[in-house]
Amino acid sequence: MSELVENTENTEGVEGLESVENESAAPRMTTVERAEMLLAQDAAIRARIDDGATLDEAIDPGNKEFGPLAHPEQVQMRVAKRALMMKEGLNPYPVELDVTTTIEGLRAKYDGMLEAGAETEDVVGVAGRVLFIRNAGGLNFVQLAAGDGTKIQGMISKKEVGADSLKRFKQLVDLGDHLYLKGRVISSKTGELSVFATEWAIAAKALQPLPALHKELNEDTRTRKPYIGMIADDNIRNMVRNRSKAVASLRRTFDDHDFIEVETPMLQTVHGGAAARPFTTHMNAFDLDLYLRIAPELFLKRCLVGGIDRVFEINRDFRNEGVDATHAPEFTMVEAYQAYGNYNTIGALVKELVQKTAMDVFGSYTVTLLDGTEYDFGGEWKSMSMYDSLSEALGEEIIPNGGPDAPGTSVEELGAIADKLGVDRDDVENHGKLVEHLWEHFYEDKLYEPTFVRDFPVETSPLVKGHRSKPGVVEKWDLYVRGFELATGYSELNDPIVQRERFVDQAKAALAGDEEACDIDEDFLEALGVGMPPAGGTGMGIDRLLIALTGATIRETITFPLVKPLN
């Protein structure tokens, strides 16, 4: 049991940080005007300190001088402490400190090695963020945390550091400060591993207060101030670290299979590689309208043409669409292409990628989700046909559109079924879109176990090779996990004439109002004309992989999610 107790006078919630965001009684100011006003307030506080004012005398709790958009009282007090440090010749942000070990290193070396009350002669220099303080008499306690949440106790004694230094510690140190301690490693009377300080210094003065660490962060703070979440919430901090581990695992698996990582353009003159509405921008130097990448597919396939037979990219993509628990406008995806593969071989690779990631991050194919339930990525994964499963759900056969000589189930019939079931329809419809809408109605959120849904309609898959034995169908699968799509895989279309036909169909759909349809990319067609080998390809959202592995929402997996500004 640690001697530390929470310093309730210094644990006000993050609401103090957000007071300026409440505009109900605040005047409107431009960004520059407010920044200049805050600088003026900082200068006024420092001037009062330099003139001999106490900390309490230096601040203006009611903001009578600078108004409601100025620093709240807590921030003013911390600004005053910074000013006092500077007046006394103490640097609140020193460039270098004699840090000799980490908090994690101390724990690894000494945990379980010292009995209560034991002392060593080992002198260390250690630093971390102050999470708790107990100021009591001549022996003060402070808890420091490393970035990964590992904690160590510091003990500051009047006998060891002197009365003046202890008084300054009590006066200047706040929760949230980065603090340096130098001293012997000991075990306290209650058995808490500690650094008994002979020296201390503020390594970085925190001007904003931490939230109340014993309370759960609200959603707004989690998304708008993720750096606060990393300090206060183990789940947020672990998500950042687990995401890094997941990406590293993917790279190792690709490397094991001799894939080469490349980088492709984010700014593109023709958007393509997926059915999605793009963001647009303008390049002044060329006076040229450009699209932010929705997928790297067409450039990675150019690599196949160039002789890079196994290629992948971990890439940022941008889609100007809706936002929900599994969709974000800016997200990270991995795409990979393998010459002389197909949708069967690439499916086996994706299964290996997901399973190895689970093992590398969590040590097992069975993961524990945030709600406490377990999910198993091991064993064999299910597989189902889109057309067969839809026919089974409807109780009537749905036939693919195999062309003029084998038209299949008509758009009119499919539309009537959709209307009868109350299925939402797009403004621009075709056979393939209606088939997918109907299938999603019955199955999309019901496929809990890992399941490959195979063999999609040709109309919705303009970059995929036609099925080797089923007219009107392409060799494509989508991988569903826990009721959402995690990845997709193709036998890649490499016939430039068929690809041009598909592009023309897409361009006509775009002219008819389909905002997700792609344009004709003549440069890509020319590359295909040079010759692209048969290939399998896949795309998988890394954010969604973290959703699958943890049970989080997409906002919780993205370290800095895009949020709408408050003002």
Automatic annotation (TrEMBL):
Its main location: cytoplasm. Keywords: Aminoacyl-tRNA synthetase, ATP-binding, Cytoplasm, Ligase, Magnesium, Metal-binding, Nucleotide-binding, Protein biosynthesis. Its cofactor is Mg(2+). One of its GO terms (cellular component) is cytosol. PROSITE patterns: AA_TRNA_LIGASE_II (PS50862). HAMAP family: Lys_tRNA_synth_class2. This is Lysine--tRNA ligase. It comes from Bifidobacterium lemurum. The lineage of its organism: Bacteria, Bacillati, Actinomycetota, Actinomycetes, Bifidobacteriales.
